[in-house]
């Protein structure tokens, strides 16, 4: 039977923060039981973006200390982890880190060493990934060109090792490396060959039901957690889907955090053939998640409100009708995700005039991001043969009523809003404990006039998007 009668400690390993929070038996956050360590990636030349591993882990451990000091580490039945996908660290033969954490936003790599007989379509169908710098088959050869690693691991693997003294990974985290055979749940032989490694150089993959416990040193540091089972980490995209209430093939979950995504969770057995434009990862031993991700979302909103120096009362495009702005924003400030190859620094605005306001620019940006997400949703509709129900979740959704309504109008269908902002932590707990949380938020219906305006805007946006892609790729 699923567990529903105890509190859960969730560790959320994000790109902008590491957090520890306590969830009640119904998977809602316990008031006041949240500790956060802010993460500031270091950016450099050539597309470099890194996270300091020591600072990250010590900050997370400090979050647990804070929860203990405030009396929140009591009556905990399980410890779960939700983590960013795609990160990698090169390790020495003794397990020491030779590099910082390389997260998804880092764009450095070297060309993939493949022969003329390499079939990327077959590779994509098996692994759900492309031969792209986001994934380990391209990351590892690049890392090997700058250091001499013996092993490789992701951030969640190293956090788990620090806590339990066991370096293992989950099928969910492994799927985000681009080295997993999705059907078998084992490392893919061709992906390993392209990367130039053996499976023994990567963390062993443990089943969803595996649990570890805190090492003796940490059991002394947090005695209330001694012997509490620690579950394998779930990739943040999969966790966010389940956490919003999108946990079967009838429902697409749209989550907006630093980045954004639209995804559908479905059984891995008899999964529909994967279109080239979409990725597919694993949720757990029995389920996969198929979708499309977008690099500009909450980060776009934060950047633009900062550039425009908007105070808290003006961070929504109040007074601008959805789909009505003359300005069109193509949100490629952080480039595009694969299989497209638009580099960062390619964002564009069209139609600017002297009478445009900060609200016009903000509306154009949020509208552009909504149209990008809608492209993925329509592909998923076609893949699953129905107009999917939609649930919205994440910090960006929680923060902006205008954006919620814009997405609903752009999708031209009703949406359900997840009432909990902590969808990643909630989903990781649901995956580990076999639960199916409901959205429990407001229901939105599209306004007909908004839908019509967006429908008129869409062809102009698509034309200008294509122009932006062409210009960005010709200049890169």
TrEMBL record:
GO molecular function list: kinase activity
InterPro entries in the cross-refs: ATPase_NBD (IPR043129), Carb_kinase_FGGY (IPR000577), FGGY_C (IPR018485), FGGY_Carb_Kinase (IPR050406), FGGY_N (IPR018484)
Keyword Nucleus: no
Keywords assigned: Kinase, Transferase
Xref: Pfam families: FGGY_C (PF02782), FGGY_N (PF00370)
Claim: Kinase is one of the keywords in the record: yes
Domain Carbohydrate kinase FGGY C-terminal: 252-432
GO biological process: one example: carbohydrate metabolic process
Coiled-coil positions: none
PANTHER family: GLUCONOKINASE, SUGAR KINASE
Family the entry assigns: Belongs to the FGGY kinase family.
Protein name as it appears in the record: Carbohydrate kinase
Species per Swiss-Prot/TrEMBL record: Kribbella qitaiheensis
């Amino acid at each position: 039977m699923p567990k529903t009668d105890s509190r859960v400690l969730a560790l959320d390993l994000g790109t902008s923060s590491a957090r520890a929070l306590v969830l009640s038996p119904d998977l809602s956050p316990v008031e006041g039981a949240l500790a956060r360590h802010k993460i500031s990636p270091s950016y450099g030349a050539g597309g470099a973006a890194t996270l300091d591993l020591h600072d990250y882990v010590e900050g997370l451990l400090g979050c647990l200390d804070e929860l203990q000091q405030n009396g929140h580490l009591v009556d905990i039945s399980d410890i779960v982890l939700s983590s960013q996908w795609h990160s990698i660290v090169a390790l020495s033969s003794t397990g020491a880190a030779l590099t910082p954490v390389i997260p998804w936003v880092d764009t450095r790599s070297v060309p993939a060493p493949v022969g003329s007989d390499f079939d990327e379509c077959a590779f994509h169908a098996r692994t759900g990934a492309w031969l792209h710098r986001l994934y380990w088959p391209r990351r590892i050869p690049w890392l090997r060109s700058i250091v001499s690693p013996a092993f490789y691991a992701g951030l969640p693997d190293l956090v788990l090792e620090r806590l339990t003294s066991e370096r293992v990974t989950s099928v969910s985290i492994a799927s985000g490396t681009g080295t997993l055979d999705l059907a078998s749940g084992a490392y893919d032989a061709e992906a390993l060959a392209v990367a130039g490694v053996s499976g023994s150089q990567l963390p062993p993959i443990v089943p969803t039901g595996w649990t570890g416990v805190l090492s003796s040193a940490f059991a002394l540091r947090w005695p209330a957690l001694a012997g509490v089972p620690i579950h394998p980490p779930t990739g943040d995209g999969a966790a966010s889907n389940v956490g919003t209430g999108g946990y079967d093939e009838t429902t697409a979950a749209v989550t907006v955090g630093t980045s954004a995504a639209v995804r559908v969770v479905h059984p891995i057995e008899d999964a529909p053939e994967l279109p080239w434009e979409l990725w597919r990862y694993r949720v757990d031993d029995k389920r996969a998640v198929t979708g499309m991700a977008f690099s500009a979302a909450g980060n776009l909103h934060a950047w633009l409100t900062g550039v425009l120096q908007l105070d808290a009362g003006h961070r929504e495009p109040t007074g601008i009708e959805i789909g009505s702005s003359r300005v069109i924003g193509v949100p490629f400030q952080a480039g595009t995700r694969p299989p497209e190859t638009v580099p960062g620094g390619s964002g564009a605005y069209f139609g600017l005039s002297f009478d445009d306001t900060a609200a016009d620019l903000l509306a154009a940006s949020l509208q552009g991001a909504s149209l990008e997400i809608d492209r993925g949703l329509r592909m998923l509709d076609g893949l699953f043969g129905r107009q999917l129900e939609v649930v919205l979740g994440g910090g960006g959704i929680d923060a902006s009523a205008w954006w919620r309504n814009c997405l609903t109008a752009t999708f031209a269908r009703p949406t359900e809003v997840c009432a909990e902002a902590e969808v990643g932590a909630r989903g990781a707990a649901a995956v580990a404990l076999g639960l199916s949380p409901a959205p429990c938020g407001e229901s939105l219906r599209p306004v007909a006039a908004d839908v019509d305006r967006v429908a008129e805007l869409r062809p102009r946006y698509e034309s200008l998007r294509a122009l932006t892609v062409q210009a960005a790729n010709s200049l890169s």
